[in-house]
């Protein structure tokens, strides 16, 4: 057993749970409980808004002046210039699990459908009802969108599509010819980026590293058997940390109360558990 780092307090934002973190312009933005906070590099915490319903993890991104938060049902925008926090009320906004900023648009999955849609240019508060597209290669629902080196990755339940901005209207993006990856996503938030790679839990409950369109299996058979035995694995989520030369991708199954970490530098997996109130790694 090895003690895990990260046990000293830097700042306290609300009473939790911390549902999302995002950095922009040297400021960290955190959703804690139902509130949005900013955290400076010196640990100064400021509440920016409230009313972010739910208790599960959220998706966050920003365009330089706006921070966007989606919780699977509603969307919220914080404008750093006006300091106004508000729910997105445009009638053409749809329920979304993920948000990704790309080419001056906020892009979203359209929850429960094969569609995905975007905001108006450089404005996460306004939308065009015709600014959407439908996943084309397979008739599976879209679970998540991601900006990967200025290509839009559209993650479906069974396949991933790559789209690029071609400047058309009212929807600016078009699918790459042959730009598909024959693997789906297990859960909308089970994606993380680190070390110039993208990591995700596949629909086959295998954990992959994606470089370009090439997938590399990095989980083990023992882990995959454990994950498959959980009563619920569609709630999985990922995040990455970097500390003392170790870049780690964490995969969490909230319903099963299980957390696994993959150390990119060593290629080794570990499990995080709580023992006597302290976080341990084994």
Secondary structure elements and pairings:
Blueprint: E1 2-3, E2 18-24, E3 27-32, E4 35-39, E5 45-50, E6 59-62, E7 66-70, E8 75-79, E9 84-87, E10 99-102, E11 105-109, E12 115-120, E13 123-134, E14 142-148, E15 151-156, E16 160-165, E17 173-181, E18 191-194, E19 197-201, E20 207-211, E21 214-217, H1 221-228, E22 237-243, E23 246-253, E24 258-263, E25 268-275, E26 278-281
Antiparallel strand pairs: 1-26, 2-3, 3-4, 4-5, 6-7, 7-8, 8-9, 10-11, 11-12, 12-13, 14-15, 15-16, 16-17, 18-19, 19-20, 20-21, 22-23, 23-24, 24-25, 25-26
Quaternary: single chain
Count of helical regions = 1
* Portion in strands: over 45%
The main pleated sheet reads as: 6 strands, antiparallel
Task: Please state the overall shape, judged from the principal axes of the Cα atoms.
Answer: globular
Mean pLDDT: 94
Given as residue ranges, the uncertain stretches (5+ residues, pLDDT < 50) are 277-281
Number of strands: 26
Describe the 3D structure.
By secondary structure, the chain is mainly β. Helix content is 3%, strand content 53%. The strands form 6 sheets. A 6-stranded antiparallel β-sheet has the order 1-26-25-24-23-22, with no helix packed on it. The protein starts with a strand and ends with a strand. The chain is globular, with a radius of gyration of 19 Å. The relative contact order is 0.10. The protein contains 1 helix and 26 strands.
């Amino acid at each position: 057993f090895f003690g895990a780092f990260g046990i000293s307090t830097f700042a306290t934002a609300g009473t939790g749970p911390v549902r999302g973190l995002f950095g922009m312009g040297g400021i960290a933005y955190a959703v804690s409980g139902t509130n949005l906070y900013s955290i400076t590099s010196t640990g100064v915490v400021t509440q920016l808004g409230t009313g972010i319903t739910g208790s599960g993890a959220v998706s966050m991104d920003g365009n330089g002046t706006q921070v966007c938060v989606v919780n699977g049902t509603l969307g919220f925008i914080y404008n750093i210039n006006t300091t106004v926090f508000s729910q997105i009320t445009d009638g053409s906004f749809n329920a979304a699990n993920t948000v990704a900023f790309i080419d001056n648009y906020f892009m979203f999955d359209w929850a429960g459908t094969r569609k995905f849609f975007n905001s108006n240019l450089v404005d996460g508060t306004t939308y065009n009802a015709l600014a959407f597209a439908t996943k084309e290669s397979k008739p599976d629902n879209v679970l998540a969108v991601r900006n990967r080196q200025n290509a839009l990755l559209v993650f479906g339940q069974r396949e991933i599509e790559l789209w690029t901005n071609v400047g058309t209207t009212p929807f600016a993006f078009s699918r790459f010819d042959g730009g598909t990856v024959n693997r789906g996503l297990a859960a909308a938030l089970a994606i993380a980026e680190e070390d110039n790679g993208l990591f995700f839990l596949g629909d086959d409950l295998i954990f992959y590293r994606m470089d370009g369109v090439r997938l590399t299996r990095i989980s083990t058979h023992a882990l995959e058997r454990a994950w498959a035995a959980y009563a619920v694995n569609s709630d999985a989520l990922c995040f990455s940390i970097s500390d003392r030369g170790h870049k780690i991708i964490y995969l969490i199954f909230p319903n099963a109360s299980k957390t696994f970490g993959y150390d990119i530098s060593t290629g080794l997996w570990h499990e995080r558990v709580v023992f006597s109130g302290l976080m341990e790694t084994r």
